[in-house]
Amino acid sequence: MHVAYWIVAALLAIFYAYSGWLKVARSRERLAPMMGWVTATPSWAVRTIGGLELAGAVGLVLPPLTGIAVGLALAAAAGLVLVQLGGITVHVVRGEARMIGLNLALLALAGVEVWLATTWL
């Protein structure tokens, strides 16, 4: 379980660190070609989502690595589940249901990470 946790945590942390950084650092105009939903979303919301993704990435790795507040890893994984549920909802409402494949994969990985965090941590 220990190895499985770290493999899934690394995959999710890399993805969310990159995705979160893009949302925090880039303008909506630069994000729009790869994330069409940002044009209909206020800048503060896009940046907040990016911040939550960055926090989730750090929360999956740092607490178990340091042994301090290890329960935060479970909270981070659960938060990333919520982020993906929100992403799926946005795509469905916008009529982009065919674009939820990545969201479903990330939702499944985050769900597995919640389970791994409850059994290993």
List the helices and strands and how they pair.
Layout: H1 2-25, H2 28-31, H3 43-66, H4 71-93, H5 101-120
Helix pairs in contact: 1-3, 1-5, 3-4, 4-5
Structural account:
The protein is an all-alpha fold and 121 residues long. It has one domain. The chain has helices at residues 2-25, 28-31, 43-66, 71-93, 101-120. It starts with a helix and ends with a helix.
N to C succession of SSEs: HHHHH
Compute the average pLDDT. 94
Spatial extent as radius of gyration = 15 Å
Number of domains: 1
In what range is the share of β-strand residues? Answer: under 5%
Poorly predicted segments? none
Distance between the termini: 10 Å
If helices are DSSP runs of H or I spanning 4 or more residues, what is the number of helices? 5
The computed structural class is: mainly alpha
The biggest beta sheet, please? none
Gross morphology? globular
Question: Based on DSSP secondary structure assignment, what is the total number of beta strands?
Answer: 0
**Helical amount among residues, as a percent range?**
over 70%
Question: What are the main properties of this structure?
Answer:
single chain, 121 residues, mainly alpha
